[in-house]
């Protein structure tokens, strides 16, 4: 993902935390969607990408820019879509993948698919393990003789299964049932300032979802439901310490798409999400209920040169309304090779449960983040007999108020509403493919320049004013040659 797009992935190595930064945002500003359901943890507001295997979905796509009006709280910088879909009437197939790498790293994967005209069943089983016992130079070692160190307490074990089942009731109706079960055991290695560390983390995730689709003429009705259950257990043998955090989430959504004409369409729907979480670090079990109404209008001109869309979303959390959000965007085909695009969006993110209730440090007085985002760009696409060239440049701007950021205090870290954060930058994506017979050469250059600064002072002589936010990357770039 980091090599194929301008997304910055902050990874601490195999098996350790991996999170994203879209356009100067943090991990909680990225919505990770599994078949349309947001799988970000309601407790800490993000998804650890190290726990998302490639086999979990048939396709992975990135949606750049703010899309809160479509996907709700958290889709501020962008969204990652993990999608599964049925391929009917393909018979029976089975694939096995085995891989091995340095430091006792092994992966196994088995996929079995039964595909009939009206029924598809897919079973994916995967397993991964690694010792991660590599050598490194400890630049903080007190004694020169101890600079060379072998990583300890870094074993990873990750296994799970994905079950997909699709059934065509008739030509217009389809129902599916999916299960994604995963268990992960990770040892947490010592820092450079520690001699040893004996702590471990165990993650257990169960995700169930089902969807019913009815395509009746100009209407496409979709009814979806999901249940997510997550358990995280932390242990430290040195201090004989253990604690377990547990959350569950139930989501139901009804959506209807009206095709008014060849040029006009409307999507309308309602979503209800109920969350329950408990941990020793909360005073008591926390429950949260959110209901949202959303609407999307799309227009495509007869000559297909102009595409526009307007969307809106209003969410009710318990008895309080979240900020009203909207999005308006358009793209116009200037020539057969050149496309122009622009959009403006209002965005928001409600605090995660840990932001509000974690003890010590949680801040129940936190406000929801809200702001506005704009972007504009040009896309060039030239296809000739022996080569294809595409180039896209996008400039973006986002102003967020009440930005939530955990900052160090005298005795512990605590989340605060920073007055205002200004994120702006430019992305480019350039690709040249030269082909001659069976030979194909592909060259891609991707660049990303972002600034995310605290735009207003919180108190007198605030040294963070106009400075880059901590732990938020400023520049990321990549290039690829095949």
Could you explain the architecture of this structure?
The protein is mostly beta strands. The chain has two domains: 8-83, Ferric Hydroxamate Uptake Protein, Chain A, domain 1, CATH 2.170.130; 93-481, TonB-dependent receptor, beta-barrel domain (Maltoporin, Chain A). The protein is 2% helix and 62% strand. The protein is built from two helices and 27 strands. The strands form four sheets. It has a 19-stranded antiparallel β-sheet that branches. It has a four-stranded mixed β-sheet with strand order 4-3-6-5, with no helix packed on it. The radius of gyration is 24 Å and the shape is globular.
What are the salient characteristics of this protein?
2% helix; Ferric Hydroxamate Uptake Protein, Chain A, domain 1; 19-stranded antiparallel beta sheet; 482 residues; 2 domains; 27 strands; 2 helices; single chain; mainly beta; globular; Maltoporin, Chain A
């Amino acid at each position: 993902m980091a090599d194929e797009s301008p997304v910055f992935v902050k990874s601490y190595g195999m098996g350790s935390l991996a999170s994203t930064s879209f356009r100067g945002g943090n991990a909680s500003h990225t919505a990770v969607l599994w078949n349309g359901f947001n799988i970000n943890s309601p407790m800490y507001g993000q998804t650890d990408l190290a726990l998302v295997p490639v086999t979990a979905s048939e396709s992975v796509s990135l949606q750049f820019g703010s899309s809160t009006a479509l996907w709700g709280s958290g889709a501020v910088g962008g969204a990652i879509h993990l999608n599964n879909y049925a391929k009917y009437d393909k018979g029976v197939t089975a694939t096995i993948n085995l891989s091995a790498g340095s430091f006792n790293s092994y992966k196994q994967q088995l996929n079995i698919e039964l595909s009939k005209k009206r029924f598809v069943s897919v079973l994916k089983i995967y397993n991964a393990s690694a010792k991660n016992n590599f050598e490194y130079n400890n630049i903080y070692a007190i004694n020169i003789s101890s600079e060379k160190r072998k990583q300890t307490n870094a074993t990873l074990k990750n296994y799970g299964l994905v079950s997909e089942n699709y059934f065509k009731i008739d030509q217009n109706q389809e129902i599916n049932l999916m299960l994604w079960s995963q268990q992960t055991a990770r040892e947490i290695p010592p820092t450079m300032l520690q001699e040893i560390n004996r702590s471990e983390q165990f993650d257990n995730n169960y995700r169930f979802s089902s969807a019913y689709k009815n395509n009746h003429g100009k209407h496409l009705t979709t009814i979806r439901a999901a249940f997510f259950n997550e358990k995280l257990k932390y242990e430290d043998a040195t201090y004989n310490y253990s604690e377990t955090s547990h959350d569950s989430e139930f989501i139901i959504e009804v959506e209807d798409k009206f095709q008014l004409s060849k040029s006009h369409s409307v999507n309308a729907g309602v979503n209800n999400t109920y969350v329950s979480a408990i941990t020793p670090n909360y005073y008591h079990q926390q429950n949260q209920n959110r209901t949202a109404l959303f609407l999307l209008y799309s227009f495509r001109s007869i000559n297909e040169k102009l595409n526009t869309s307007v969307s809106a979303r209003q969410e009710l959390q318990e008895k309080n309304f979240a900020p009203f959000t909207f999005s308006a965007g358009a793209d116009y085909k200037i020539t057969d090779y050149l496309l122009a695009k622009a959009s403006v969006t209002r965005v928001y993110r409600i605090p995660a449960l840990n932001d509000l209730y974690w003890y010590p440090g949680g801040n129940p007085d936190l406000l929801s983040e809200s702001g506005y985002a704009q972007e504009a760009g040009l896309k060039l696409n030239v296809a000739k007999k022996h080569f294809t060239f595409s180039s896209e440049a996008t400039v973006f701007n986002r102003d967020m108020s009440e930005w939530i950021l955990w900052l160090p205090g005298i005795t512990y870290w605590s989340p605060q509403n920073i007055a205002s954060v200004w994120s702006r930058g430019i992305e480019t994506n350039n690709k040249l493919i030269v082909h001659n017979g069976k030979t194909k050469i592909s060259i891609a250059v991707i660049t990303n320049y972002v600034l995310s600064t605290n735009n207003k002072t919180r108190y007198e002589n605030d040294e963070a004013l106009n400075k880059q936010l901590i732990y938020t990357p400023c520049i990321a770039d990549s290039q690829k040659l095949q």
